[in-house]
Amino acid sequence: MQRRYGTRTLPRGTCHETLEMKTSVLDFAAVRAGETARDALTHSVELARTAEARGFTRYWVAEHHGLQMFASAATPVVVGHIASKTSTIRIGSGGVMLPNHVPLIVAEQYGTLESLYPGRIDLGVGRASGTLSDDVVRALRLTPEARERFPDDLRELQLLFRSNPGDTTLAVPGSGLDVPIWVLASSPYSARESAVLGLPLAFATHIGPSACGAAIDAYRTAFRPSAVLKKPYLMLAVVVTAADTDTEAHHLFTSIQQMQLSHMRGSTQTRLPRPVADFGVHATLDEQQKVGARLQSAITGSARTVRTRMEELLAETAADEIMVLSFIHDLDARHRSLEIVAQVRDEINGQQARSSFY
């Protein structure tokens, strides 16, 4: 796809500027080998503070269930905790898995968060279950109809945040509050639903890398202006592992490679593993290829490499915002990766500003 230049209409929580690359963070609250969920949540707060200090726009946490590696199952609780430990960065869900919840409860939860932290809360919603286990699906009381209800539930959620005189069902808190709703997608289906409602789209390249182009086209083609947006707004969630050298980054990247391998083999009871010297030793050639296909959109390398790949991604997709996701075991390296992403963002924005001037 060709990049589409021009002034973009930005959703609430962003600044009205032309062609400025914005960066945000998606966090799964990964539990490292040898640690607990409490440790993981403490690390999430520390990373959110780094993101805030480095000028990231928003910090989202994801809903997962039955996976010992991730500690963000009670997403609104984690959102509130991180919001209480930060000051300016937007905090939100990436996302709430709507089939697991009643829209009224979601509106009340995020209305409460918006009341406590006004102007800082985002509500990203998706139609998946947030689990890899059939047993957990049953424990969540999920039915096939729950996912099919997603479009209706999404519209109901929107209505619950509107203040309409005479409504007999009110979300309290929630009704009349300005809580931005984002639609999460990993396929064209949810992308089209976001477009029809005129909502911002967050596409998960780490889940549906091969569907990215089709989903973006579907979103932009079907987009209808709304009270929220006049033009499409696209945020891409991308696995980014940045380090001072390409070699170090690829070493750190072996943690998510091992994680993907474990999931492929059917295990959900693992922690975020330490990096290894050679991932190829731990997987067959066929497994390496499958892991590579799952992670084909990942960006791994030094600042120079990350900048090149991000510029290519922006040129291919005309994304308005990049949300970075990392699975780095070493805590210092995790923070350093964000610092490098911020450096790359500032360099790209500086170059764009100079190009516009001349």
Automatic annotation (TrEMBL):
Q: Which UniProt keywords apply?
A: Oxidoreductase
Q: Which GO terms describe its molecular function?
A: oxidoreductase activity, acting on paired donors, with incorporation or reduction of molecular oxygen
Could you say which residues form the signal peptide?
Answer: none
Q: Which GO terms describe its cellular component?
A: cytosol
Residue ranges constituting the Luciferase-like domain according to the UniProt record: 21-320
Keyword set includes Protease: no
Question: InterPro entries given for it?
Answer: Bact_Lucif_Oxidored (IPR050766), CmoO-like (IPR019949), Luciferase-like_dom (IPR011251), Luciferase-like_sf (IPR036661)
PANTHER family in the cross-refs? LUCIFERASE-LIKE MONOOXYGENASE
Q: Know the name of this protein?
A: Luciferase-like monooxygenase
Name of encoding gene = fgd
